[in-house]
Amino acid sequence: MADPGFPPDTLGLVPMPSRRAVLSRRVFSHVGLLIGAGLIAVIVIMAIFAPVLAPYDPYAQDLSNRRIPPVWHAWINDHHKASWAHPFGTDRIGRDYLSRIIYGARISLLIGTLAMLISGTLGTALGVAAGYFGGRIDMFVNFLVTTRLSLPLILVCLVIVTLFGGSITTIILALGFLIWDRFAIVMRSVTLQIRNLDYVTVARANGCSSAYIIFREILPNVANALIVVATIEMAVAILLEAVLSFLGLGVKPPLPSWGLMIAEAKTDMFFDAWLIGIPGIALFVLILAINLVGDGLRDVTAPERRA
Fold first, then answer.
1. What per-residue confidence (pLDDT) applies to 251?
2. Which of 196, 174, 185, 193 is nearest to 226 (CA)?
3. pTM value?
4. Tell me, what CATH number does 282's domain have?
5. Distance of CA 256 to the CA centre of its chain
6. Are 120 and 177 a contacting pair, CB within 8 Å?
7. Minimal CA–CA distance to 241: which of 261, 263, 265, 257?
């Protein structure tokens, strides 16, 4: 019989990897998560350092250089006006498209992040309260969710923006107070599943307050679902801002919103398709990256739930 005083490696035992090591291995082996995180990192850096990276003032107009095509038109069509002076070309009033794309990332990230934080805070509070306390609180929250789902989202946004103007603050508040329902539904469902588990029952038996149980026992265990919903709602908020801007009720010119850039170029879509294609691709890449990160975080933090 081996001496129990021997170290584990001399007994042929392999030490168990730490939780951090297992999580790191899952993160770096998830291709989708890495791609999404890399794209988001590039877009965030682009937004933060926009004054340094943008080659021109995004608001500066130069009518003598309007509708210059992107640089790749010089390779494909041998277009004489395309040059590296304006890699993404210029719009119909001569503003540099690359500079406006870079600055437009700021607006999309700002609106998406703040709207998600507002809706997440409201929806999570309502959902956790309904799932934990039940009874009349649950009935009241269900009534609020049903009322919210009965309202057409785009139509309500249009009404609010029409009444109060299309400022960034109005759009953030309107979206934040209109897209909270998914947070509430998911958080209520998850809280109902865990409120009677052993660790919550033990905390309740030890005399812990409801606030302590919610913040120390329940919220850390619903973080996985919360992350997934947060990424979805952030993408939804960015898309809704682009839709409102496209309809002329979002951020006002001359702000370089990607949705507004698409709206301004819709009359030229059959002649200069790149005016719509470039901001459209930028919007697509950002939404794709957010969804890849959300899906990857779900897989990494709860691999047993992967399909």
1. 81
2. 185
3. 0.84
4. 1.10.3720.10
5. 19
6. no
7. 257
